[in-house]
Amino acid sequence: MSTDGGTAPPAPRLAGIRSRWLDAAIAGLRDDPGVAGAALVGSLGAGRADDWSDIDLLVFVDDADLDEYAVPGRLPSGPGVLAASFDARHNGPRGTRAVSGQHLVDGLPLWVDWHIQPVSRAGRPADSVVVFDRRGFDRLPVTFSDLLSTGEPEPPTPKEPADLQIARLAMVPIAGKRIARRSPETARMIDFLGGPCQPGASWRRHLAELRRLLDGFAPLGLPASVAAGHAYLDLVADALG
């Protein structure tokens, strides 16, 4: 879920890709009778999104179908291809599921977080925008962030070292987004991805480090993700330059 609140320059190409993808995915959700409701959450739901914002979608399904909808690729997609997908259930409370993924659209990456909740505990967070609601769920007096942190978290699923590296590759553009926003969290995220933590470095230095990290992920055998990451960093450089 996007949490950066910095000011970023316009990126109309990214905003257009996000809009097209979201329109198609929402149409797919509406066509699925097993989805009881859906809402935009994160920055899009809270009304603080910018052109660089990712997509966070909250969907409600019958309790018995929870695990089915958490299978990567089960939920609808927009244009492009799903390059990488990750079980992210540990980001929510017990009894819920989450799936994160990198989609490649027109040569650029788009990060999507799906938050899947059973109808037995469904409710619309205060800072969400309802897409559709087939069962009349209550509006909750808490934010989506508060909802995610309620109670004990869902245990993470085991992941192989290669899976963790693929996740880091897919998150390089997220670090690039933080550069575009001049976020103070940029250095910390680069450190998480395997680069040096340099809080005082210039944005150009941070970009150069992310490019080096991208090239280091080449042995994973995902050249399209590496190329899309470089294309994204080119957009960051153009926007800030």
TrEMBL record:
Keywords, alphabetical: Transferase
GO molecular function: nucleotidyltransferase activity
Name of the protein described by the UniProt record: Nucleotidyltransferase-like protein
Keyword Lipid metabolism carried by entry: no
Database matches in SUPFAM superfamilies: Nucleotidyltransferase
Residue ranges constituting the Polymerase nucleotidyl transferase domain according to the UniProt record: 29-64
Top-level taxonomic group: Bacteria
Keyword Zinc-finger belongs to the record: no
InterPro entries given in the database record: NT_sf, Polymerase_NTP_transf_dom
Transmembrane segments: none
